[in-house]
Amino acid sequence: IVTYNILVNAFCKTRKMDRAFGLLNRMRKEGQRPTFQTYTTIIDGFIRAGDIKMALEMVHQMKKAGCKPSTATYNVMMYGLVQDGQMNRAVAIIDEMVLAGITPNERSYTILMEGYACIGELGNAYKFFKKMKEDGLKADIVSYGALLKACCKAGRMQSALAVLHEMNSAGVERNLFIYNILLDGWAQRGDMWEAAEVLHQMCKEGHHPDIYTYTSFINACCKAGDMKRAMETVADMKRTGVEPNIKTYTTLVHGWASASYPEKALACYHEMKEAGLKPD
RNA sequence: GCCCACGAUAGCCGAG
Q1: A234 φ, ψ (degrees, to nearest 5)
Q2: Fewer Cβ within 10 Å of end Cβ, chain A: N or C?
Q3: How do residues A245-262 score in pLDDT, each as one tens digit?
Q4: What is the pTM of this model?
Q5: Is the CB of A106 under 7 A from strand B?
Q6: Which residue is nearest to nucleotide B13 (CA to C1')?
Q7: Where are the alpha helices (DSSP H) in A31-140?
Q8: Which secondary-structure segment (H or E) carries A68?
Q9: What is the distance between the alpha carbons of residues A29 and A63, in angstroms, rounded to a whole number?
Q10: Which nt is closest to the CA of A74, judged by C1'?
């Protein structure tokens, strides 16, 4: 059964839902009982394919087969609804879980927080952050990341700093994701100075900037109109072995174009093609 | 605690 599950998972991850589904039927025919993991994997596959209806249908089949949906099953459903922008339905799943006697875990709440973070609803994100703690769950680094992103998206950078502070008190170490979210928060506001400060601090603490860090920072420079600094950053990243990708170049092309230097924009565009990247 | 399932970061454009 574990072997089957691994196979089913492989098919789902490569978007071959028909084959995954076929395998499920084969398991049934051979008299093997698919486990709750099997079902959850398939439901996850449908969710990632954007097919909420089929995902719900599978939940139904799962229950009919006498398999109890687990926390992960509910999490997957919430994730799908969140991706689809159906926050209210996603939130309703929490109540459904509780009614079914299933306990939400930190991921359950983090999924909802992420959803609210994406639309800049800090208040709601925070609401579930609190709820998580009320349930006696410990916020992990991903949960803090979601809260941080909510602050950044809402433009509440002071609150973002407060979140970092709380992480410290909770003894949760910052990682590259955390720094990148924060740096991007400043970048979105065109504050390359604060962004530079974050970049400086992360390096000081031994974190190596990655493609996300650099691209966000370049974006900050472009927004602030400092194309010189943007180009210097490109040089920096190459020097540290981080190759600019399509997004990095698009940021630059856009930056030069907004600064009314179409010829510079074109030069970046050519450089991108020479680097073997296809414009998208 | 670990094993087969679930959550996090960047650009432009389009759609609304």
Answers
A1: -60, -45
A2: C
A3: 999 999 999 999 999 999
A4: 0.94
A5: yes
A6: A280
A7: 36-48, 52-64, 71-83, 87-99, 106-118, 122-134
A8: none
A9: 18
A10: B6
